[in-house]
Write a structure and sequence with these properties.
single chain, 317 residues, Rossmann fold, UDP-galactose 4-epimerase, domain 1, 2 domains, 13 helices
């Protein structure tokens, strides 16, 4: 029997992951004995799961919840990029110290549980080659990226020590996200498709030639499930790596939306540049060669047209 805790389980990926786990009823070849979604406020759980309240900046509360005993812990909780840049101390409390609280809680179990940590392509940047390889040094150019990178080092080190079985997944930008725009610098990468597809206007704050390393929510969930199935020995000495994604420019992605949904959604996009936001996102890298992840069986979207179709099928309001 397998017990699974999803921290950040009230977010859209956490909900989709919980729904997928509940539907398959098993993980790592064993039936689910317990499935819980934890978030700052207890989420409404999917059928078959529990909704729990957890503030990961509270070390005692985090230790108490994790101490209940879990075989797989998904750590998805974070302050997103734009907010972490604007509110440095909050980003540090949640993204760094909160992550350390989760890792220490998992360590204290003494059972070497799996901890699947969602990192970001924002850990790369600065003076590096245009193509990111598995061995490319981390050089984040935002506070969010720095906080994620710091947590990654402890995922790998605690795995080396045998405290946890860690897996750090550097996620591409997830698009098309459901719901409303948030404080992430990458929020526009969903809103310029999501809102027009739902009859609303949206602004693109960057130029048409801006390239995006991206992945659909459906494929992200598939890869999160797969992360728990990969044999620990196959991960090697570096437990953190980039997930597969696609690189397309804004213009190419809009053309894909036009092909699937016609001209009307495209006509709802406005083009007003945002210098502050551009400075953040221009520090991100869009060309990644994720050979390790592909060799381990992780997958990417076939086309952005598929991403648009997935949104229309799964998430259109």
């Amino acid at each position: 029997m397998t017990r699974v805790l999803i921290i950040g389980g009230g977010g859209f990926i956490g909900v989709k992951l919980a729904r997928a786990l509940a539907a398959q009823g098993a993980l790592r070849g064993k039936p689910l004995a317990r499935l819980a979604q934890a978030d700052l406020r207890a989420p409404d759980p999917v059928a078959g799961a529990e909704g729990l309240a957890l503030d990961i900046t509270d070390a005692d509360a985090t230790a108490a919840l994790i101490g209940q005993g879990w075989d797989v812990i998904y750590h998805l909780a974070a302050i997103v990029s734009g907010q972490a840049e604007a509110e440095f101390d909050l980003g540090m409390r949640v993204n760094l110290h909160g992550s350390l609280n989760v890792l220490q809680g998992a360590r204290a179990l003494g059972t070497c549980p799996q901890v699947i940590f969602t990192s970001s392509v924002a850990v790369y940047g600065g003076d590096i080659p245009p193509m990111i390889e598995d061995w490319t040094a981390l050089n984040p150019q935002t506070s969010y990226g720095a906080q994620k990178a710091a947590a990654e080092f402890f995922v790998t080190d605690m795995s080396r020590k045998g405290f946890i079985d860690g897996r750090g997944l550097r996620l591409p930008t997830i698009t098309v996200r459901p719901g409303k725009p948030n404080a992430a610098a990458s929020s526009f990468m969903s809103s310029i498709f999501r809102e027009p597809l739902q009859g609303e206007a949206a602004n693109c704050p960057v130029g048409e030639d801006y390239p995006i390393w991206h992945c659909s929510p459906r494929v992200i969930v598939k890869n999160l499930l797969h992360a728990a199935e990969v044999d620990a020995a196959a991960l090697g000495q570096n437990r953190c790596f980039a997930l597969p994604g696609r690189t397309d420019t804004v213009a190419e992605m809009i053309a894909a939306m036009r092909k699937v949904a016609g001209d009307e959604p495209v006509s709802r996009i406005t083009w007003n540049r945002d210098a502050v936001l551009e400075k953040i996102v221009m520090g991100w890298r869009a060309h990644v060669n994720p050979q390790k992840a592909l060799a381990l069986g992780f997958v990417r979207d076939a086309s952005f047209e598929d991403n648009i179709r997935f949104f229309l099928e799964d998430d259109r309001a």
